[in-house]
Amino acid sequence: MIRATELAEFVALHGIKEWARRLGFGSYNQFNLRGEDQAPVVSGITFDLSAPAYFRPLLQIVDGVAKQGFFACDINLHGIMDELEVEAFVRKCDGAAFSNNVGRIMPMLVADVFSAKGLDLAKREGILAVTLENLFGSELAKALRDLVSLLTNAGATASVNPEHLMHVMRTLSKIEGASANLRGALFELVVGSLVKDVEGGFLKTGQKLIEMGTGRKAEVDVQLDREDNKGFLVVECKAKNLGARVSEIDVRKWYNDRVPLIHRILNTGYKEVERPFHFEIWTNGIFAESALAWLKTQPRTCDGYTVDWKDGAGLKFYADMASNSSLRVMLNEHYFKNPMTSIVGSDGS
Questions:
Q1: Which of 14, 79, 225, 340 has the greatest number of beta carbons closer than 10 A?
Q2: 3-state secondary structure labels for all residues of 121-164
Q3: In whole angstroms, what is the distance from residue 59 CA to residue 328 CA?
Q4: 284-300 average pLDDT score
Q5: φ/ψ of residue 235, rounded to 5
Q6: Residue 281: pLDDT band by 50, 70, 90 thresholds?
């Protein structure tokens, strides 16, 4: 839930950033965002989004010198924003404005929903309290809620509706700067839906595992228990942007560490049945030449399992076997033909 909510907040913050800088609430190229290189700090206090501001209500002239103000914004999409949460934000803003050396601050608080008391307190304290629907409209607000649901509801991730997933991706991709993060976060859902469509069986995505005895942890992006006793297909997903490649370090770690660990954990309880395990690493991009060269020197049949890989061209060829056209469209729009990615088809085109 925390990871899903943080992603939704990050996507929303990109939208708020574009909205605020186009309206001139802050200096256009000086917006700082949570999780990026430079922290959004105002007077030693970190917000989710901040920028120096020079528009008239915030600008002061002190001893003949212009003194900038600040635009400062926090976002919380986890549940209802109540009086206590608003009060905490008010104290935060008061702390940032405590020093006489700090310019005026325009505070903005964004939530999915405010309680009546929370909204009333924000208005009394001069806080700009905004909901997702007020800011982005009902379609984008719903898409952000659906994003959290897709990433947290175990039942939904195991039987995600490809048409619904495509609609969420298309809608949220309208927010400038958010596309790359969305593609990465949703890639395993797309791949999971794809392998289930092509091969059938029982699907799990984003499964977290712990090895008994050592306490070592592993996360399985996609696990398909295939029909007709064909065994398990376990896929590691690597979503890549333009120019980015799966490195040799990535494939060595996957082959030497992740695969044996996941196999040991998943194989517990299946030894008598002797169901085959097959591990693959998939990317919508390409593998570095050194990564491919190293992979090709490694055995593909190991003790109790087999391994293989697919680059963007191989994934595209596999996707052509899908019966659901939405899966092919989604991959073409967001992973193969997206301006941020570069993939050639299996025929070289």
A1: 14
A2: HHHHCCCEEEEHHHHHCHHHHHHHHHHHHHHHCHHHHHCCCHHH
A3: 52
A4: 96
A5: -115, 130
A6: very high
